[in-house]
Design brief:
The protein is elongated, with a radius of gyration of 16 Å. By secondary structure, it is an alpha+beta fold. It folds into 2 domains: about 50 residues, no CATH class; about 80 residues, no CATH class. The protein starts with 5 loop residues before the first strand and ends with a helix. Helices cover about 30% and strands about 10% of the residues. The protein contains 6 helices and 5 strands. A 3-stranded antiparallel beta sheet has the order 3-4-5, with no helix packed on it. A two-stranded antiparallel sheet has the order 1-2. The protein binds iron/sulfur cluster (SF4) (2 copies). One iron/sulfur cluster binds next to α1.
Length: about 130
């Protein structure tokens, strides 16, 4: 069995800011448990729950309002796009695949081009395997 964070050529470890091919070494990622568990990017996969809300709370952390706050409520048809109303009154958007808040620059891309997003493709693969 490969590392549970290895998906479709990407490392999806929550340690990374976003899924990446950079840390992938086939001998390591596709190796046995003792090999991949020694990887510095490896974390116990209990945190990889794509259940809405659970992952959101455990992985999004604290928002940086300077780059994350939105004055208008965002909307995307992507199933991994999460919207939160901050206590200050602004809106925040997060991505369950990336496990973090989305910046103001990224939100319009999720709103308009969600069906072309590579992270969504990874998220759907992860859901299929659950
Ligand atoms: S072994 Fe390390 S680099 Fe490879 S998928 Fe797992 S966590 Fe990522
Ligand atoms: S469109 Fe992509 S980046 Fe945006 S929420 Fe969906 S998966 Fe995440």
């Amino acid at each position: 069995m490969p590392c549970p964070w290895y998906k479709d050529g990407f490392c999806t470890s929550p340690v990374l800011e976003r899924p990446s091919t950079d840390p992938v070494i086939p001998e390591k990622c596709l190796g046995d448990e003792t090999v991949y568990k020694a990887c510095k990017y490896y974390r116990e996969p209990t945190s990889l729950s794509l259940t809405q809300g659970k992952l959101y709370q455990s992985r999004f952390g604290r928002p940086l309002l300077l780059i994350h706050s939105l004055s208008v409520k965002p909307s995307s048809s992507c199933e991994f796009f999460v919207v939160e109303k901050h206590e200050s009154g602004v809106y925040l958007a997060g991505c369950e695949v990336l496990g973090r808040y989305l910046t103001r620059y990224e939100v319009p891309l999720c709103e308009k081009h969600w069906d072309e997003c590579p992270y969504r493709r990874i998220g759907l693969l992860l859901r299929e395997e659950k």
